[in-house]
Structure formats: C-alpha cells, structure tokens
Automatic annotation (TrEMBL):
Keywords per UniProt: Carboxypeptidase, Hydrolase, Protease, Serine protease
Residue ranges occupied by any LD-carboxypeptidase N-terminal domain in the UniProt entry: 7-128
Species lineage: Bacteria, Pseudomonadati, Pseudomonadota, Gammaproteobacteria, Enterobacterales
GO MF annotation: an example: serine-type peptidase activity
Domain LD-carboxypeptidase C-terminal: 173-289
Species this protein is from: Candidatus Pantoea soli
Pfam family, one: Peptidase_S66
Protein name: Muramoyltetrapeptide carboxypeptidase
Protein family according to the UniProt entry: Belongs to the peptidase S66 family.
Active site: S109, E204, H274
EC number: 3.4.17.13
CDD domains registered for this protein in UniProt: Peptidase_S66
InterPro entries on file: Carboxypeptidase_A_C_sf, Class_I_gatase-like, LdcA_N, Peptidase_S66_N, Peptidase_S66C, S66_fam
Broad enzyme group: hydrolase
GO BP annotations, alphabetical order: proteolysis
C-alpha cells in the first residue's frame, strides 16, 4: 500500500464526460488515505472542454504560486484542448518552482503536448501515466496499472520487462521521451517539441488505423526526428480494425518500414497507452533498453521520486 499522498487534479483538456468514473476514482484515492485537491476541475465545462481556456490554463500556471506543492499533479482526462494553451504556459515560472522538486506531473493522451512542451521549454521530466477518470476510475481497477504507477513515482530506478515480437536485438542508451503519437506529430515545427538526440522514443495511440500511424511516422522521418533516435518502442494501438482492403497491411508492416527506412530498431508490444493495463514512463529520464530473443528490458532513472 503506497504512503498517503496529496493529489492535485488538473483538467487542461476535454470535459470529463464520465463523471461517475471520476467520482469513483476520487473515492478510491481517498479511501487509500490520499488527499485529493481541486475537485472542481472534474465538473467544470465550457463547450467540449473542461472549462474555458483561462480556467484550464490556470490549472497549470497556478503550480507556480501554490503555497504548498502537492506530491502528485494528476490529469482528470485527455481528449483535446492543451494545444490551445501552449503559448500561454508560464514555462520560466514552472521551471523555477518545479525543477529539482519531488513532484510527479502525470497524464497521457492529449497531455503529451504539455509534457513535451515542458521538457522542451523548462527541462522538466514528467510522467506518461494513468489518469483519474479512465484509469483510476475504471469499473475494474487494473492492479497492473496501479502497481506500475506507484513503482515509477517512488523508485529511483524503474525496471520493466516484456515479451516483444521484434526481430531486433541489442542494447541502447538515451533519453526516454514520447507519448501519444498524434500529439507528437502535431508539435513538429513548433517550439514545443523537444529536440532529442540519441533518444529512446516511445509511442502509442488510439482510434488510429495503421496507415494513419505510418503517415505520422513518415512526418517524423521526413522532419529528421527518427534518424536522431537510438530506438523506437511501440506501445498499444487500440480501437482500430483492419479490413479486406488492407490486404495484410498492419502495424507490423508499419514497424518494419521504420526499420528499413530509418535504420533504427523498433521494439514492439510494450503495455503502454490507452489500454486498461499500462506502465508509467518518465518523459525526459535517462534510459537503457535491451532486447535478446524477444525478451525486452527497459530501465530508467533520473526522474522525480516521491519521498
């Protein structure tokens, strides 16, 4: 059982349409002894968003001036909306307040845009992690997801292992980064995408057909981003269906094209993304990746660790 923590909710993206799930998550966290703050973020609504732009931006920038910092800052849900805020985020203030603090800034999906912007502009390492409603509020709580979450936030070195269908073998070291592929691609050519050389790039997505995933990866390739990476790790790509028209064109075909055109290894099958079971990764951490005979291992360190 993890030690009781203070958890501050933020909702910089879409309105939380599953209010029951969010309330279930809050009750679970409180029952475990955690203090949950800023509950009004759950019910806020403006159009399709969790409040207007000013309210959602305040969730982020208020971290600069809070009298006491929480242990965990947790996104309520993803959706869409952070891209509208990136130009107004107080990157200098967040760097001054949060750098070298044991604070875990957590979320995934649309939240990827903020995480990458913070890494690019403030040098802050954050966590690609489960979120309040979709994960902690799921009807059947995933023990896999919860245990990996607390392991990542409390362990100075995090070790993950999984079976991969990748034909690659070897050992690589670099900066761990990435998240939702659609959000990564949306930041190409902007100041909000960090320029990572010798990186270990991890990607995932939902509701995207293999051809759309390949198109986004071609954008990263033609922008010179993939060529600068040591390796690519693929997580879960869910809620899509192939048809007869695809004629064998699947995700494995996409990964092989990356190997062939970019000459980098692609290590597949990490439980990371929008599935119920997902690991937690630290975007900006130092990582070592290795694979031999389909046994993949990833270790990372240098991330904020809760005391």
């Amino acid at each position: 059982m993890p030690a009781p923590r203070s958890v501050r909710l933020i909702a910089p993206s879409g309105y939380c349409h599953n209010q029951a799930a969010a309330q279930r998550a809050v009750q679970r966290l409180q029952a475990a002894g955690h203090v949950v703050e800023n509950l009004s973020a759950i019910t806020r609504r403006y159009q399709r968003f969790a409040g207007d732009d000013a309210q959602r931006l305040a969730d982020i920038n208020q971290l600069v001036t809070l009298p006491t910092l929480p242990d965990i800052v947790l996104a309520v849900r993803g959706g869409y909306g952070i891209s509208r805020l990136l130009e107004q985020v107080d990157y200098a203030g967040l760097r001054q307040r949060l750098l070298h603090q044991p604070l875990a800034l957590c979320g995934h999906s649309d939240f990827t845009a903020l995480q990458l912007a913070l890494l690019a502009q403030s040098g802050l390492t954050t966590f690609s992690s489960p979120m309040l409603a979709g994960n902690f509020g799921a009807e059947a709580l995933s023990e896999f997801t919860v245990s990996h979450f607390w392991q990542a936030l409390t362990s100075p070195t995090v070790n993950l292992s999984w079976r991969s269908q990748s034909p690659d073998r070897g050992r690589w070291q670099g900066t761990l980064w990435g998240g939702n592929l659609a959000m990564i691609a949306s930041l190409v050519g902007t100041p909000w995408l960090p320029s990572i050389t010798d990186g270990i790039l991890v990607i995932e997505d939902v509701n995207e057909h293999p051809f759309r995933i390949e198109r986004m990866l071609i954008q990263l390739q033609q922008s010179g981003i993939l060529a600068r990476q040591r390796a690519l790790i693929t997580g879960s790509f869910t809620s899509t269906a192939l048809s007869e028209y695809d004629n064998g064109f699947d995700f494995a075909s996409v990964w092989q094209r990356v190997r062939d055109t970019c000459q980098i290894p692609v290590i597949s099958d990490l439980a990371f993304g929008h599935d119920a079971d997902t690991v937690t990764l630290a975007s900006g951490a130092r990582a070592t990746l290795q694979i031999e005979n389909g046994e993949a291992q990833l270790a990372y360190t240098g991330h904020p660790t809760l005391r």
